[in-house]
Amino acid sequence: KATLTITPNTAYTGETVTLTCSVGSDSGWSYTWYKDNTKKVVTLSGRHTTTGATFTINRAAESDQGLYRCQGEIQSRSISSIISDPVTISVNERPVAVLTLQPNWTQIFSGETVTLRCDIQGGEEIEYAFYNSGKLVYTKTEPEYRISPAKNGLYTCEGLQKRNGLKHSQTSNAIQLTVLDKPQAVLSVSPQWLNPGDSVTLSCGVKESSTGWRFFWYRTVPYTAGLLSLSDRSYSVEPLSDSWTTEDSYTLIPAGPSHTGGYVCRAGRGDPVYDTLYSEPQFFWSTGN
Which residues form the Ig-like domain (predicted)? Predict the structure, then answer.
């Protein structure tokens, strides 16, 4: 009796499936291959080829699904084996891979850290492969690729079967990562001339991007050792508060002329925190009491 083995029994579209028919130790066997019933002989084509005891399905399609059997015969001796038991071939579409960028900011700046995540349906053990412009840059059993610092490129991902390294999923959507130069915060002061008791509003922004920032506020003072110094030590800065704000504005009520002077800000976002360059100083003047 013939014995039929198939590798793999469950294939994805486009894969190669190999059927092997084993009859016994005698030589000189030729083989007949059946699909779905013992009267339907498999038709050979560009995708379906035979060599000896092997029948190969190239670029498997859903139409290749079904029950397969084989039979051996030695024509010169008019010997035929018993037809093999049926073996099922299933052909499935590859799972879809979805690539996302975290955090999903429209602008990424030089030195920032980003994470690409590859989500693929299905519980099979797979490795996740990440590509930049078609070149493999990272593989791991976890679906995330952390890029620190972020690099320019056109990124895609796909799943690979862990047992043999073959392609498991479709190739994902592409994400274009364009890394911009480090930005500088922009500070504005309103109003710039104050009467006694007036408040002043500092507004801080990042021209290239409005997403995800928190803001830090500083007063300029004469250069002082031990304080953060800017502009080649032409002045130092001290924080206006112990913490940052998520609001892009900060209100002061100056206490006389002592609050007259310069102010700067910067912005930060992400984990780890990525800081912009400090703003240029802005000034307001108070007439005092």
Answer: 1-80, 95-173, 183-267
